[in-house]
Specification:
Helix content is 72%, strand content 0%. With 167 residues, it is mainly alpha-helical. It has one domain. The model has no long low-confidence stretch (mean pLDDT 87).
Length: 167
């Protein structure tokens, strides 16, 4: 879909086009729009997490294992989750700053996606600690969430690399 055929709701949320066939499919260097990166590619892993975290909570409730000791791997998982949660929270603060202080017109997607991402990563921190306390070594739900988040983050990572190389 091109810019002039985008639904008005998507334009209101993103402030820009959602998907461009020319930039994504019909090109030698495919790229997705920032709106697509900050909606579908963030919301998909978060939606997976919120849909399947009750399964993990049920497993935690049924677990009769002894608590795990603090290990390097558990600490790295929790610290990386804290860093990502803080990063998303600071993106939200930056959007509020641009909207209130700089008096810029900021699209709602710049408020929505960091909020969803920071709440989801904060919930993963809680679940990592709960898994540790209930003796659950690994969780398929958390693993798949992080895998999806990593895969869905690759287009934005590529965008940042291209932006750094071009400047």
């Amino acid at each position: 879909m091109e810019d002039d055929r985008q639904p008005s709701v998507i334009k209101q949320i993103c402030g820009d086009y959602f998907f461009s066939y020319k930039e994504t499919v019909n090109t030698t260097s495919p790229d997705v729009s920032q709106c697509f990166q900050h909606t579908v590619l963030v919301w998909l892993p978060c939606l997976f997490f919120w849909l399947f975290s009750p399964c993990l909570l049920c497993d935690l409730h049924k677990s009769g294992n002894l608590p795990l000791r603090w290990g390097t791997f558990i600490i790295v998982k929790i610290v990386s989750s804290i860093i990502l949660s803080l990063d998303a929270f600071f993106l939200l603060l930056w959007a509020v700053y641009e909207w209130k202080i700089d008096d810029r017109n900021v699209a709602p997607v710049w408020f929505i996606y960091p909020t969803i991402l920071s709440l989801t990563t904060a919930a993963t921190i809680v679940l990592f600690i709960a898994c540790k306390n209930r003796g659950v070594i690994t969780s398929g739900v958390l693993f798949i969430f992080w895998l999806l988040l990593t895969i869905c983050g690759l287009p934005e990572f590529r965008w940042w690399i291209e932006r750094a190389v071009d400047s």
